[in-house]
Amino acid sequence: MSMSNDIPSRVEALLFVDGGSLPLRKLAHLLDIKDPALQEGLQELSRRLAGTGLTLIVTDTEATLAVASDTSQTVKKIYERELSREIGDAGLEVLAIILYRGPSTRAQIDYIRGVNTSSTIRTLMSRGLIERTGNPDDAREYFYRPTSNLLAHIGVENATAIPAYATIKAELSAFEESREKSLEHDHGDVT
Amino acid sequence: MNMSQRFAIAMPSFEGPLETLLNLIEERKLSISTVSLAEVTDAYLAYVEKLPEMPLGETAQFILVASTLLLIKSRALLPTLELSPDERESVEELERRLARYALIRKAARVLRKEWGKAPLVLARRSPERPTTFSPAETDVLSIVQAAQKLLSILPKPQELAEAAVAPILALEDVIVGLKKRLAIAVKARFSELTRSREKHEVIVYFLAMLELVRSGSVSVTQEKLFEEITIEAEQVIAPRYGT
User: Which of A21, A143, B34, B153 has the fewest CB atoms inside 10 Å of its own CB, making it the most exposed?
Assistant: First the structure.
């Protein structure tokens, strides 16, 4: 049958039977394909889902089927209680760092906010809004990343689709570059 | 504000030195610069003095920023003051951190607008696959057989109901019948009366006989245990009731 090798269809089927969400590594393993082929399949599935009641959320670590924003109002009523999650400024700032800057360590988040963030991070983790993965460069540290739950909650399919992503991201990276520069060169007088 | 207070109950989070400093600058509608930092230094120091008890690490962060601010302030008051490269770097770094933190706060406000506004609803997470005990040799047939076996062991409610409603002789009828018979025969043997009767009918006859004894209509004799019972009419007269 021609469908048997169709990666997007098989991804969709696997996501469906497992309740909507699977880690990318597991998907690649189940389909016995490499990551680039999986990424391609995910993009194709995303395209196919356009205009249907469903959409695909992809993070660094997992893929998730979700109700598309056009139809979400219809089903929102059922989940009213689940969705009415409040969040404080501290939590939102940590999420902003992780979303706009990218996966970050606790030390980086602490330094940017100028305050210890461990309890905020713990709460965000327990609410399923962020997840942590090992830092390949330093086993003592974790990278905190957005979860599909978080992306779903702000209504985007992937982290680059958040509002003003390009501009804020660029401004943030400019800081990191300027810091590196200033560490290299000795500046003139402070004005 | 209300929201963040409620959030703070769940997780006590400190307002750090950057946040404090940025609030002071924004309150005064200033932009982030060494000039504005020099301007808010006094207010910042006053804030630090009133700091509540907090972990040492947090306090140290406040003090560190305070020292840089003092450097900036001194420089503003004494323009001839030369800063060392390290001092310049810490001043620049503080400005950068503030500007970046301001940007993060802006980004957080962007997120706040989107927060839960148009969520993509996720599938109801299928529960973790339940650890079902499923022995390999179980199939539908064996379950059906087990159920049938169980059913055959259980008492049959229908049969019980039939036994309960099975027609038996009415005690009154037997009493009337006995009296009639004794009115004619005067004397009768219990075995004769019940010769062709079922066991439960015999019981009814026995009860009827006892009833007649009690009312004084008949007298009964039995020579030995389990021997023949002989019934005799007490008075040889017309029956008082019955026809």
Answer: B153
Which ipTM value was assigned to this complex? 0.71
Confidence class for position B128, pLDDT limits 50, 70, 90: low
What CA–CA distance (Å, rounded) separates B239 from B199? 28
pLDDT digits (tens, 9 = 90+) for B175-227: 888 888 888 888 888 888 888 888 878 888 888 888 888 888 888 888 888 88
Chain A residues in contact with B110 by the CB 8 A cut-off are 96, 162-164, 168
Q: Which of A46, A23, A17 is nearest to A147 (CA)?
A: A23
Residue with tokens 């909650």: A153
Strands A54-58 and A130-135: unpaired
Domains, in order of start, for chain A:
4-67 (1.10.10.10), 72-186 (1.10.10.10)
Q: Has this prediction a pTM greater than 0.80?
A: no
CB distance A96–B110 less than 8 Å? yes
With contacts defined as CB-CB under 8 Å, which chain A residues touch B124?
A: 19
| Chain A residues within an 8 Å CB radius of B101 | 112-114
Q: Is the CB of A55 inside 8 Å of chain B's CB atoms?
A: yes
Vertex B235 angle, CA B233 and B237, to 5°: 105
Beta pairing class for A62-67 and B229-233 = unpaired
Question: 3-state DSSP call for residue B127?
Answer: coil
Cβ contact (<8 Å) for B13 and A87?
no
Residues of chain A with Cβ-Cβ distance to B68 below 8 Å are: none
